[in-house]
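hiii, so i know i said id send this last week but things got crazy w the move. better late than never?? heres the sequnce for the chain we talked about at the cafe, plus the structure i predicted for it. fair warning i was half asleep when i ran it
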Amino acid sequence: MALIDDPTVVASLLTQMEAQLPISAQVTPEVRHMLRARKVLIPAHRRVQIEHVMYAGDEGGIVCGLAFPGSSREAVVISLTHLRIAAAHPLANAIREYQRTRVHKLSQSR
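okay and structure toks below
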């Protein structure tokens, strides 16, 4: 079975992201909907902070521990593929490429 993620790319991106933490991001509408079901309300324009990054293996990919500004109670771990990073961020291109590649490979493995 072929790997979804390139281990070298993942290790490099994790190291780069860890050096930039916290990273501001927006969640996708799907994640916002899922969080709403858990009584965590995030307006569409509101940003969250990526405070931790880790690798959940080839099955889970890079996942991010989020903090919600103004809320110290909620802790959520979300796949990097469900987060949007501002285009001006130094890692935006590398993160988008990881997301594109992972989503493409996942769609082909079904």
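btw The first strand starts at residue 23 and ends at 27. thought thatd interest u
miss u guys!!
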